[in-house]
Design goal:
This protein is of the alpha/beta class. It is built from twelve helices and twelve strands. Helix 6 crosses helix 7 and helix 7 runs parallel beside helix 8. The chain binds iron/sulfur cluster. Iron/sulfur cluster binds next to loops.
Length: 317
């Protein structure tokens, strides 16, 4: 039996805007295995959140496929769509904005339980209390409102709400970006613990390459709508190929002040091109220190350069 839970096959998600076609997701292929975490990393505006929403079935890809357990999610009938909404959940960057400000925490957590008719009456209350405990909150929090909580606690509420329907996959869209560093570590540890207990899979979307290392099995680096590197998490920090990945990694501060003083940061020149009406060239060619003639003429494909390690760069063909 296949271990693949979710598969993106050459997915393109475009938007028609005044000046042309905005290619937010431009030919992404990626698999996510059961129980695995893939970290999706890139600068703001690179298309990673659009990719997350494409997986959530909020945006229909212009072309390509999204397969969940082997079936295209855009061929689903009504009942399958309803089931998919239970099995794939999302956690958002701003927990406050994603919670109902006038809804009590218990009812917010139970949204999915009520929609899917999973528990009623006393069983519903017991389930909410169980979820509060699972995410490190207290029983008395059930009747409080979101404004009474800190940012980290609100994110715990968001996680409890996602877990309430017993999903298999959670799309975590910048779930720690709005939190203090110490709280970020707590949320990452909580997600890891829950994954171990429940066998969850995560797509962990972030612009922060340092924290994503703690949770990811593999890391996918995205630039201007496309994946430019994909590798096992530990490997990509030691051995990386794409000039963009190298620049991103060189920006991570090092805790040891002696080593930090010797850190050589790769500063990229040039502007990020507009994702509108992208040309058939390497999308990184305007900023790449290694740019060649060929890079301006054709777009490199994502190719395996060592076992399980892929990059999209003409230097490695
Ligand atoms: Fe740089 Fe060319 Fe590789 Fe693009 S294909 S990253 S421009 S060397």
């Amino acid at each position: 039996m296949s271990n693949t839970l979710l598969e993106l096959k050459n997915a393109h998600t475009y938007f028609q805007v005044e000046k042309g076609l905005l290619k937010a997701v431009n030919g992404v292929s990626l698999t996510l295995r059961k129980g695995e975490t893939v970290g999706l990393v890139g600068e703001s505006g690179c298309g990673k959140s659009t990719l997350g929403k494409t997986l959530m079935r909020l945006y229909k890809p212009h072309s390509g496929q999204v397969l969940f357990k082997g079936k295209d999610i855009w061929t689903y009938k009504r009942k399958e769509k309803f089931q998919y909404r239970k099995e794939v959940q999302m956690i958002f960057q701003d927990p406050y904005a994603s919670l109902d400000p006038i809804g009590m925490v218990g009812d917010t957590i139970a949204e999915g339980i009520d929609i899917h008719g999973l528990y009623k009456g006393k069983a519903r209350t017991s389930r909410i209390l169980e979820l509060l405990k699972m995410v490190g909150l207290n029983e008395e929090h059930i009747n409080r409102f979101p404004y009474e909580f800190s940012g980290g606690q609100r994110q715990r509420i968001g996680i409890a709400r996602a877990l309430a329907v017993e999903p298999e996959l959670i799309i975590c869209d910048e779930p720690i970006s709005a939190l203090d560093v110490s709280i970020q570590a707590q949320i990452v540890n909580l997600l890891k613990k829950l994954q171990k207990e429940m066998g969850l899979s995560y797509l962990f979307i972030t612009h922060d390459l340092s924290m994503v290392r703690q949770i990811s099995d593999r890391i996918a680096v995205m630039y201007l709508g496309s994946l430019v590197e994909l590798a096992p998490s530990e490997e990509i920090y030691e051995k990386n190929y794409h000039p963009y990945t190298r620049a991103l990694l060189s920006a991570i501060p090092i805790a040891d002040p002696k080593v930090e003083n010797t850190r050589k940061r790769i500063l990229l020149s040039g502007d990020v091109p507009s994702p509108i009406n992208l040309k058939e060239e390497c999308s990184f060619c305007m900023r790449c220190p290694n740019v060649m003639e060929k890079c301006r003429k054709s777009r490199p494909e994502l190719k395996e350069v060592s076992p399980g390690h892929f990059t999209a760069c003409h230097l490695y063909e």
